[in-house]
Amino acid sequence: MDFKFLVHYSFHFIVPAIIAFIFFKENWKKVYLIFIAMMLIDLDHLLANPIFDPNRCSINFHPLHSYIAIGFYFLLSIWKRTRVFGIGLLLHILADTIDCFL
């Protein structure tokens, strides 16, 4: 297992669990499941050819990873009703951004 893989998937699974537990103590399991469900934005990878390229940066390449989409995710994180979804999407984007630099 290489370093890039370990960091990438830690940010997809472990960091969201820690954030859910620290900031959403009463509902951390539900929040964590929502955070994990936000990985569905990776479905936009199906539009690319090849679908997976380990050397490609997802940010601003795939539609749901575009700067416009990221701005929308920030907006979602503002309102209490959609905050968990916005944070989950931003955590996903953070994981993919870190991946671009490794």
Structural class: mainly alpha
* Major sheet attributes: none
Elements, N to C (H/E): HHHH
Can you count the beta strands? 0
- Could you list the spans in which at least 5 consecutive residues all have pLDDT below 50? none
The shape, in one word, is globular
User: What is the domain tally?
Assistant: 1
Mean pLDDT: 95
Percent strand equals under 5%
Helix share of residues?
55-70%
Distance between the termini: 14 Å
Q: Over all CA atoms, what is the radius of gyration? A: 14 Å
Number of helices: 4
Describe this structure in words.
With 102 residues, the chain is mainly alpha-helical. It has one domain (3-101). The protein is 61% helix and 0% strand. The protein has helices spanning 3-23, 28-37, 67-78, 83-101. Helix 1 (3-23) runs antiparallel to helix 4. The longest helix is centred in the first third of the chain and has 21 residues, at 3-23.
Please describe the topology of this protein.
Elements: H1 3-23, H2 28-37, H3 67-78, H4 83-101
Main traits of this protein?
102 residues; mainly alpha
